[in-house]
Amino acid sequence: MIYKGVFAEANYVIGDSLSTHSGAHFYTVDHPNQPKESKHEWIRSGGWWLNHIMTTSLNGLNILSTDKVESMEGITWLTFGGFQNSLVSTEIKVRPKKFKMHAKEKALSNV
User: For the Fibrinogen C-terminal domain, which residue ranges apply (predicted)?
Assistant: First the structure.
């Protein structure tokens, strides 16, 4: 089964590197049926929503290094450190498509 990513508009403090992948199919190393217009052979550590351009990979490797990363294998967010810096950790939350936020949650999400 292939899952399409649908990412709601958000106010990212660190910049938006996710909306580019909205509508893209989710691909994994063991099911590499990637888009014909792109080759993502650098996806080695997990699945991600892939399209013609890679702007983030939160399922990358946790590369603990003070040196610049030489590949795109780390946990990356293009608008926050680019691909040369691997983030220490990330968190992904999944909600049903018809999810409705409570007023208190909406207020907190706009902070």
Answer: 3-97
- 59 and 48 Cβ atoms separated by less than 8 Å: yes
Asked if 50 and 32 touch (Cβ cutoff 8 Å), the reply is no
DSSP H/E element including 27: strand 25-27
Task: Give 3-state DSSP helix, strand, coil % of the chain, rounded to 5.
Answer: 10, 15, 75
Give 102's contacts (C-beta < 8 A, 6+ positions apart). none
Across the chain, mean pLDDT equals 70
**pLDDT-based confidence at residue 111 (cuts at 50, 70, 90):** very low
Helix or strand (DSSP H, E) at 25: strand 25-27
Tokens for 4, please give them: 């399409």
Regarding pTM above 0.85, the answer is no
Asked if 61 and 73 touch (Cβ cutoff 8 Å), the reply is: yes
Query: What is the 8-class DSSP label of residue 67?
Result: S
